[in-house]
Design a protein that fits this description.
Dna Ligase, domain 1, 132 residues, three-stranded antiparallel beta sheet, alpha+beta, globular
């Protein structure tokens, strides 16, 4: 069975893993997911991630979740642009999530970056997800 939305699946696994109190979770590997995870790591929402080669041309990504005082570092995560409805924005119309406390993760010509870096670089793109 093919998966239509690997990024949405990864975000759901992160959300469910934090609610269950897991220290790490495993999801399917893709370069796109790896780019989003690197942004989450740089912004301090996850501890780390690593790619595990299963052989036979298959890979998995192990994500180490981050907790603060018994609660997950990610309070809210939501997929914005979905396969059935893509959401694009330019710099002037880019929304702020939780008044700037949360971040939007965008796919831009400069790569996958958070919203404040996109504003600094004066580029827009596809809004992948929002994290608080």
């Amino acid at each position: 069975m093919s998966m239509n939305d690997p990024l949405g699946d990864m975000l759901t696994r992160i959300r469910n893993g934090q609610m269950a109190g897991k220290s790490s979770i495993i999801c399917l590997y893709s370069k796109h997911n790896e780019n989003v995870l690197s942004v989450l790591k740089d912004e301090g929402f996850i501890r780390d991630f690593k790619t595990v080669d299963l052989g036979n041309n298959k890979k998995e990504t192990q994500i180490f979740l981050k907790y603060s005082e018994g609660k997950g570092a990610i309070r809210e995560v939501a997929r914005v642009s979905k396969p059935g409805r893509r959401v694009y924005t330019n710099v002037k119309e880019m929304p702020r999530f939780y008044n700037g406390l949360g971040i939007l993760i965008l796919s831009t010509p400069h790569g996958v970056i958070p919203d404040y870096k996109a504003r600094a670089a004066n580029v827009g793109g596809e809004v992948l997800c929002q994290v608080f």
